[in-house]
Amino acid sequence: MFGRFLEVSLSTSDIGASVKFYERLGFTHLTTGDTWHHPYGVLSDGRLCVGLHQRNGPAPLLSFVRPELARHVHELRAAGFEPHYTRLGDDDFHELQLHDPAGLSIALLEARTFSPPRGDHAPSLCGWFSGYSAPTLDTDTVRAFWEHAGFIALETVDDPFAQLALTSDTLTLTLHRPRMLESSALLFTDPQMPERLERLAALGIHGSENLPRGLDRRANALLEAPE
Questions:
Q1: pLDDT digits (tens, 9 = 90+) for 20-46
Q2: What span, in angstroms and rounded, lies between the C-alpha atoms of 208 and 211?
Q3: DSSP notation for 44-56
Q4: Residue 127 near residue 190, CB atoms below 8 Å
Q5: In what order do the strands lie in the sheet with 95-99?
Q6: Cα–Cα distance measured from residue 168 to residue 154, given in angstroms and rounded to the nearest whole number
Q7: What DSSP string runs through 140-181?
Q8: Pairing relation of β-strands 128-135 and 105-109?
Q9: pLDDT tens-digit map of 188-213
Q10: Among 42, 63, 45, 64, which Cα is nearest to 53's?
Q11: 128-135 and 152-153 beta bridge pairing
């Protein structure tokens, strides 16, 4: 329904500081187009693309590409997906925004805004990108929204904390309780995570003190980006 997942779109007041943060984690730059008039950069680990937008606005957004977007707006509305923002003028780059029942912002764009990563793109230092996790109190309602959008619900997983996973062919979204973590998070996994965290520490990259309760600090870390 939403199209192909493009990027996790983040708003930043200092794009230079944000870029340096992801560069230190081993993310590399992708070539962006001239779609946006504000400063914009994309960094990737080969699986995940993080779009850094120096602008005001809702963030984070899960951004998807839906070609010929203007033709599909009626279909989206008929299915119950009502956008709260649209830009669909003849001379505009078409986009719309909506949000799920928990308030997670979603953007649909008519085309890509950067070149895709190469097949041999080097991974980051974080491990395997396993999904985007968002907090919610009403799991059933949010689950129904994403299933209606074409995602498939999987069994609840406990790694690194209890989450309900919903997957599509381009993104896995997980839902966690706010008491575990108040904010959204990018999740990375690795069977050798303790060794990976030691390598990050050697580079001066340390986890936050706000690690969700019950997680072993030797095998888990919470990194907080500048934005």
A1: 999 999 999 999 999 999 999 999 999
A2: 6
A3: ESSS-EEEEE-S-
A4: yes
A5: 28-30, 40-44, 49-53, 4-11, 61-65, 105-109, 95-99, 85-87
A6: 11
A7: HHHHHHHHHTT-EE---B-SSS-BEEEE-SS-EEEEE-TTT-
A8: unpaired
A9: 999 999 999 999 999 999 999 989 88
A10: 42
A11: unpaired
Q: What are phi and psi of 19, to 5 degrees?
A: -60, -45
Three-state SS at 75:
helix
pLDDT at residue 183, as a whole number? 93
Question: 59-95 burial, b if ≥16 CB within 10 A, otherwise e?
Answer: bbbbbbbbeebbebbeebeeeebebeebeeeeeebbb
Residue-averaged pLDDT of the chain: 94
Provide the pLDDT for residue 159.
66
* Pair of tokens at residue 57: 């606005």
The DSSP string of 105-145 is EEEEESS-SBPPPPTTPPP-SS-EEEEEEEE-S-HHHHHHH
Give the type of residue at 122.
A
The three-state secondary structure class of 184 is: coil
